[in-house]
## 1
Amino acid sequence: MKKILAFNGSPRSQGNTSYLLQHFLDGTGHHPETLEVIHPHELNLEYCHGCLRCNVLRRCSISGDDWEQISGRILEADVLVFASPIYFHHLPGPLKILLDRFRSFNHVQITESGLKHTPWHEWKKDFVLLLCMGSPDDSDADPVIDLFRFVTSILGSGNRLHVIKATRLAVAKQVIKDRDELRILYEKLKLPADLAEKDHQKNKSVLAECKRLGNQLSGTHNQEV
Ligand SMILES: Cc1cc2nc3c(=O)[nH]c(=O)nc-3n(C[C@H](O)[C@H](O)[C@H](O)COP(=O)(O)O)c2cc1C
C-alpha cells in the first residue's frame, strides 16, 4: 500500500478544497496506517531564510520548528497531495512557506547555462494538485501548476504530476451542493439557472475524478470506484 501525505491549504474547514481532498481520500480507502492529512496553517513553520546553507548542510539550517518532522514524512511518502484554493493566481501563504522549504531537498549550482539542481534523495513520487478557484476560467491556476512542474522536475525525472481543477466556486461547500441548492445560490448570485444545472454536473464529475485518482494512486484498486 502506498504512503499518502496530504496538505490541505485552505483555511476554511468546510471549504471546497476539503471536499476535493475528502473525495480523493475516499478513493484511497482511508487506510489510517498509510495516510496523513496536514493543515499547513496549523504548523509551526518558519519561512525560508534564504541563507542557502542547505547547499552544504544537506538539510534546512532552521531548527526548532516543524520542518524536521514534516520533511521526514515528505521523504517517506509515495504520494504527496497538495489541495488548495487559488489565491491571487497562486498558493495561499502557508502552503508557499512550506514549498519554499523544499529548497533544502536540493543542491543548487549556478552554471553558465542556468541553475543545476541535484536532489539529495531519490524522488519517484506522485504529486497531486487539487485546486479550487472562484473564476470560471481555470487559467487562474496556471502559475501554481507551473510552480509544481518546476518543483517536481528539479526533484527528479521519476516524479509524476496529476492535476485536478475545480472552477466557479465561491462559497463554502459549494462543490457538494445538490442541484436545487445550487440553483438557489445562483439566483442570489444573479447567475443563469441553466448554468446551475451545468455546474452541478461539472462539480459531480470533478469529485468523481478526485475519487478515481485517489483509488488509482493508493495501490489498493477498489472495484467500486
Ligand atoms: C485572498 C483570496 C484570493 C483569491 N484569488 C483568486 C484568484 O486569483 N482566482 C480565482 O479564481 N479565485 C480566487 N479566490 C477564490 C477562491 O480560490 C475560491 O473561492 C476557492 O473555492 C476557495 O476555496 P475554499 O472553499 O477551499 O476556501 C480567492 C479567494 C481569496 C480569499
Note: The chain has a mean pLDDT of 96.
## 2
Amino acid sequence: MSSPAWLETETARRYHNFAQQTTMYQELSHLMVQLAEIEPGMQVLDLGCGTGVTTQAVLETLGESGQVFAVDVSEPMLAVARGQINSAQVTFIQADAATIPHLAAQSVDRIVCNSVFWQFRHKPEVMAEIRRVLRPEGRFVFNAPEPYFIFEAIPRSKKVSVLFEQLAAERYGVGRQDLRSIAVFLQNCGFEIIGKQMLERTRSAAESYLFMQIPVATAWMEPPLEYETRLVLLEEAQQLAEGNQATKQRWMYFVARSISL
Ligand SMILES: C[S@@+](CC[C@H](N)C(=O)[O-])C[C@H]1O[C@@H](n2cnc3c(N)ncnc32)[C@H](O)[C@@H]1O
C-alpha cells in the first residue's frame, strides 16, 4: 500500500481540481509516455492511474488500436477517472499494484507508473507483479522527485547507521533512493535500467498552495494533524508568504526492462 489518505473522497476531489488547474501532471505524463516509446496497438498498464491524466496521454499515443489497463487502489480516484475518460480502449481496474489478478502473465508491452513508485511501501511485491505481467521485451517506466530521490550515485558507506539505510534501500526499496541504490534494488528484483532522464520544472507559489490543499500532500506528518488543522495552517502560511516565491522541482525518470535471474 501507500498512504491511506489516497482512499479519501476529498483527496480525489482536490487532486482532480489540482490536475485541472495546473499543468504539472500533464507535463510529467508527457515525458513518461515519450520515454515508454508506446506504439499503436500496444497493451499498456498505467499503474496508479489516479484521475486518469497519464491514461489520457497513453491513449492519445496509442491511436485507435491498443489497450490501456488503468489500475488504482483508490475507488474515489478511479471514479473521477471514469468520469473523465470514456473509451472502449481503457479498462479501469481497482486493485493494489502488488496484486492485479485481472491481468494475465506477460500480457502487457509497457508499464507506466507516474508519480507513485516511491510511495509504495511494498516495492519488492510490486516489482514481482510488474515482472509477472510484463512481456519479456517490455518496458517499465517510472519516476521519482526530490527529495525522495537523490540525484547522485552514493557509494556504500563504512558507517553502520548509513549502511543500514543503504541496505534497506537496496533490498526493500525503503527510504530515499539514489542513483546507485535504485539500480541495485531493481537488479535484485530482476530488472535493469536502460534509460534515465531528468525533468526540471518550476513550481509557482500558486501551484504549491493548490497542491498542499490535497489531503494526501500533508498527511505524512508525525504525529499527524487533523486535515482541518492543516488547512488552517496552510491559509495562514499563504497569507504570510510572499506571493511570487517559485521553487525548482527535479524529477528522475527511469526506463527498465526485465533480466533473467
Ligand atoms: C500522485 S497520484 C498519480 C496519478 C496518476 N499517475 C497521474 O499522473 O495523475 C498516485 C496514485 O497512486 C495510487 N496508489 C497509491 N498506492 C497504490 C497501490 N498500492 N496500488 C495502486 N495504486 C496506488 C493512488 O491512489 C493515486 O491515485
Note: The pocket of S-adenosylmethionine is lined by residues 1-2, 6, 19, 25, 29, 48-51, 53-54, 71-74, 77, 96-97, 114-116, 119-120 (CB under 6 Å).
